[in-house]
Amino acid sequence: MDLEKLKRKQYFCQNLTSLMKTTFGEYIRELRTKNELTLTQLAAKLNLDSANLSKIENNKRDFDKKRLPLLAKIFDLNLTELENEYISDQLGKQIYEYNCSKQLLKVAEAKAEYRRTLKEKAI
């Protein structure tokens, strides 16, 4: 892993600023309306049709992670912070759908920490 990617991952983990009580789709709608864009206008900028964007904003479809850099560019957002919002929403969705216990989350956190130590040993 190159140094830039490592720094980016560390920034992500150290700067989890999202305490939003909205879904990623709702966050996109909020960005769109604050910037006075119609659904059709933003959909065109994202190379989506407006029906798909509507489904994303209404939590009926997930946003494609590959479009995050474009979304960041459209709204002049920090890509890492936008990725934080996206990933935290995806994790929250999985936690909800699988009805995860706090104990399971602690185990997952410990496994993530273990993976970090493996990566550090490899560097």
TrEMBL record:
Task: Provide the protein name.
Answer: Helix-turn-helix transcriptional regulator
Pfam families assigned to the protein according to its UniProt record, in alphabetical order: HTH_3
SUPFAM superfamilies per record:
lambda repressor-like DNA-binding domains
The scientific name of the source species is: Seonamhaeicola algicola
Concerning PROSITE patterns, the annotation shows: HTH_CROC1
The record's GO molecular-function terms, alphabetically, read:
DNA binding
Could you read off the lineage of the organism from its UniProt record? Bacteria, Pseudomonadati, Bacteroidota, Flavobacteriia, Flavobacteriales
Q: Which residues form the HTH cro/C1-type domain?
A: 28-82
